[in-house]
# Entry
Amino acid sequence: MIDPLNPEKLYGACDQQLFSFQTTDELESLTGIVGQPRVIGAVEFGIGIRQQGYNLFVSGPTGIGKRWTVRHILQERAAGEPTPSDWCYVNNFEEPQRPLALQLPAGQGIILRQDVEHLVRELRSTIPAVFESDEYRARKQAIEIETKSQQARLFEELAHQGQAKGIGLARTPAGFVFAPLRNGEVIPPEQFAALPDEERTGIEAAMTSVQELLQSVTHQVLQLEKEGREKLKALTHDVTIFAVGHLIETLREKYAASAQVVAYLNAFQQDVIENVDQFLTPPEANIATWMGASRSLLDGPPFLRRYRVNVVVDHSATQGAPFVYEDHPTYQNLIGQSEYVAQLGALSTDFNLIRGGALHRASGGYLMLDAYKVLSQPYAWDGLKRALQSSEIRIEPLGQALGLISTASLEPQSIPLQVKVILVGDRMLYYLLCQYDSEFNGLFKVAADFDDQMERSPENHLLYARMIASIVRSEKLLPLDRSAVARTIEQSARLAGDAERLSHQRMALVDLLHESDYCAKQAGHTAVTASDVQQAIDAQVYRASRVRERVMEEIQRGTLLINTSGARVGQVNGLSVVQLGHFAFGQPNRITARVRLGKGEVIDIEREVQLGGPIHSKGVLILSSFLGARYSADQPLSLHASLVFEQSYGGVEGDSASSAELYALLSALSGVPIRQSIAVTGSVNQYGEVQPIGGVNEKIEGFFDACKAKGLTGEEGVAIPVSNVKHLMLRRDIVEAAKADKFHIYPVQTIDEGIEILTAVPAGERDHSGNFPEGTINYLIEKRLAEFTREHLAFAAAVAEKSGEHTKQ
# Structure
């Protein structure tokens, strides 16, 4: 029979004598990442290779510190990289609906905006002053006088020619009037009518000739007016150039290194010249025309908004490459958008209302996103992929991109995109994207998969202590003494569910340190001790253990039928784990088996009523196969057996109870009772080997609590797979009970070893003749099954004989 485990194997203690420090204040902060070489290598490779598509997907369980770790690596890398360019949107004076994007060195975007604002202010004061100068007025007046005098000469010459032909010319408000003259006097109409026809015809011919001359003169006059306007326009151009040229030329020289800015300033100058009248209009007149618009938004006359510079990416305060984490990755927050402003009941927009997104801010650096949040936002995932595939950011309304609206809107010039995108999510999400998104693998070629655990060793204990010291300093907590560090390391192993591993659950570690700090301060300690850490752990358990305590209470009261003493045929205590949020606890379950003559069926009642999951059903089928192969290899298995979890009203999943179900079945077949003081867990294969299961610590603790509620007698214990021994990190009260010989943990490798512990009867092995020793469990089972077979054959023969008699009759 297997001996129980030595109590020292029930808990992997951390020897604080390994630490030479007294408190974590004496330790250096940890600059690197502990226990994640695979992740570090993947991230460094992903950010080092600059080919398209080598973005990263960081996977791992929640709370492991994925964001913190990657942020730490990227921020260190980004600090040593060059700062990317600023980007601005300016008016496209030829096509206002297509704003232009300007690229400038980091920090120059705001400077350009300030320079242009200063330029506009200068123009608003300089241009009116120049056009009000005496020189301009004199030159303008000279042009106007010259034009008028030339027009007057033409009309004088026309009048002389008319008089020479006997025709007078007079100017009226309605135009020019012709009249016949005699001796320099106008001939009255009645006298003109009394003239001889020949003379009258001559006068009319002269008038026609003068009319033709008038048309020629009128054409010349109009030409002179046009020339005058051209001269005035040229004068205005020259004066405007005089007022504007030197101001803009200063900026052209300042930004001569940027051909884009120089081209914009040239277009700016031309537009000012063409719209100089807007600078001559009193500002109050311009502002008053836009009623209903926000004064702070317009910031000046509406027309002058066309000359502003909209800085969408500003790296004036950025040191190195940008690192951006977008917590709310909507389509607009990623790609950017053109906003609208309500004016007189209508919505309008211009290039000043273009807003950049996270991709704009992160271009030239790194963008971290939560994969689940991106996928849960409508069209954000498609927009992100489109930007990465085209290597440019194109801002367009979502409705327009989807073809849902046809309203005219801005079409800003696209901005080149060069960014490393880091998606953070769990492993299942990564595998689903690989399987169902054909574009995903081409865009996120680097997977950084976080390890849940790290090896437990003296070297790693010291590294873990330094990590604790780093967290304590960054969170401004009390230092931990070495006993507290040792207890924290032990709790990390418990979270890992493995005495030989430490958990990478950074969130759980930070929470424990905060709560231990609180307990230490409440006790007035200057450093956190092991008792403070233990108090914090106990408080965590207490806050979450209401359901567990209610279950144990019902076991104690007899509502949940669990026996911890005596022996029963076909009845065993199995163990399960209940997961409630972040808290898991073990619970014993009564498993029973009944057998009778049948056709070789092992009925899983849980499966029959659809309460059993597929893995649990698989475990039952495996034990059925084991049963037939061991005891009925050369004869029919004439058995009908039923298995059930008593008082189970929810689903049952997992194969960790398959060994317990097999023990109950073997007991029912052999007639040998099972000790109810021993609970069992473990799965079984077709060869009768007991296989490891999860949650072994919680399962043992659950049965221990049930036994303790009913009173420990020293007979109680749990049989576990031998391969689970290395996972044991049991509570201190269980370890103490084992030391006092009040509770026992039995390591089991095979079903035969387990049934011997449960029944105190040898299992038995076949001898050279192939027979089991008499009185052993296996002998009794084989004998019982042989009886079933004989009864089955006898029953079949009787039925056949009876059927034959009926045939003769």
Remarks:
- The domain at 549-789 is CATH 3.30.230.10 (Ribosomal Protein S5; domain 2).
